[in-house]
Amino acid sequence: MHPRVLWTRGGGHALLAASLLVAVSCGGGSSAAPAADNASTPRVVQVVAAHEAPVERTVAVTGTLAAEDQVTVSFKVPGRLEALDVDLGSTVRQGQVLGRLTPTDFALRVTQADAALQQARARLGLAADGGDEGVDLAQAAVVRQARAVLDQATLTRDRAAAFVKKGIGSQADLDAAEANFRVAEGRYQDAIEEVRNRQAVLMQRRTELELARQALSDSRLSAPFAGSVRERHATPGQYLATGTPVVTIVKVHPLRLRLSIPEREASAVRPGQHVRVTLEGDATVHEGRVARISPAIEEASRTLSIEAEVANPTGVLRPGAFANAAVVTESRELTTLVPATAVVSFAGVDRVFVVKDGKAAERRVTTGRRDGGRVEVVKGLTAGEPVVVSPGNLVDGEAVSTKEGGQP
Predict the structure, then answer these.
(1) Tens digits of per-residue pLDDT, 283-311?
(2) What 3-state DSSP class applies to 247?
(3) Residues 6+ apart with CB under 8 A from 78
(4) Which of 37, 106, 158, 323 is the most buried (most CB within 10 A)?
(5) Which structural domain range is residue 301 located in?
(6) Which residues contact 42 (CB under 8 A, 6 or more apart)?
(7) Domain for residue 76, yes or no?
(8) Cβ(283)–Cβ(324) below 8 Å
(9) End residue of a domain, out of 313, 332, 351
(10) One domain, residues 350 and 314
């Protein structure tokens, strides 16, 4: 049936509109039914059951690697540097000789001190090559001589006193004998003190010899610990005063990792906890442990300073490098996990969709840690519930058809 178009003055437009409306109503009835069919078709979604599994609780922070020990070594004695056997990057062992001063002067001082020691031993009547330095004062030559003089003076005094008592001697002879006795007694005491003085000189000469030998030993510079040479400061042929820097050595095994833990996580950090360390551009995970914890929170940054010891037997880690660290505060805690794509966040609210009675049901959840492609759900969901993996623009109450798949 074709509509008739009637044109009248002033009312043509109204009649045309009415005729078109009739035509649309007659010919468009068949297009509304498919739209209604599409609206009633359930949406196919992929679901996975929320899974409960043990997950480590970690605190992710960044820090800087530092050497366990660092020292700039130098000679204890002055001299000319004869040889330096290490350079930048050299690996050294504990006790390894790093360099040597010209030993001539030190060897001569040892010879001189040894000769002075032998002289001191001879004055005490000791053998030059003996090790015994004990001396019997009464057997020393100077003491025995003084003792003999004292004994003679004693006899002379006693004899003069007897003569005076019998009237056959003069008082003057007795006074002279008494004076000689006192002189002999004084010389005897002086002889004993002389021997003691020689003993002290012997000890001094022994010390001087040890000092000379120590100086000869100190003309060789040794590494105080195993490590690597960070910097070289001297050159062979250079005259070095006492304490002049020669080389700087760093201990690279283990290393110290200095970290700043946020105040909200500080209470969970304890000595001995494991630390996983990675470097920029390197996926290798290096193991460490929390070794030292500051007793106070930094007020300016509201962080807790800690130090972790990181094993570095091969020296692949370098002091001063920037590192990412994960401090494992709990290692076997059971928690509910869902795929990260299942969580929809909007305006600070996290949601997931579960399937219930063939319809999508919205759940507001509280999320926690992320473990790879999984997210921890702390509140709002129980293990075993079917969760929509990728909800997209899914709305609450929408009819859905499910298919299994994905990983929790």
Answers:
(1) 889 999 999 999 999 999 999 999 999 99
(2) strand
(3) 239, 240, 241, 242
(4) 323
(5) 59-69+251-332
(6) 358, 399, 400, 401
(7) no
(8) no
(9) 332
(10) no
- By residue count, the chain amounts to 408
Which of 390, 48, 72, 57 lies closest to 231, judged by CA? 72
Read off the tokens for 29. Answer: 């009835």
Residues 229 and 247: beta-carbon distance below 8 Å: yes
Task: Tell me the pLDDT tens digit for each residue of 127-161.
Answer: 777 666 677 778 888 888 999 999 999 999 999 99
Say whether both 316 and 365 belong to one domain. no
Q: Say whether both 348 and 319 belong to one domain.
A: no
Binned at pLDDT 50, 70 and 90, residue 37 comes out as very low
C-alpha–C-alpha distance, residues 221 and 103, integer Å: 12
Is 2 contained in some domain?
A: no
pTM for the model stands at 0.59
DSSP-derived 3-state class of residue 220 = strand
Preceding omega of 408 cis (within 30 degrees of 0): no
Query: Are 280 and 346 in the same domain?
Result: no
CATH assignment of the domain containing 256: 2.40.30.170
- Same domain for 211 and 108: yes
Q: What is the dihedral of CA 27, 33, 34, 39, to 10 degrees?
A: 140
Q: How far apart are CA 362 and CA 356, in angstroms?
A: 10
**Full DSSP string of 229-248:** EEEE---TT-EE-TT-EEEE
Pair of tokens at residue 336: 């509910």
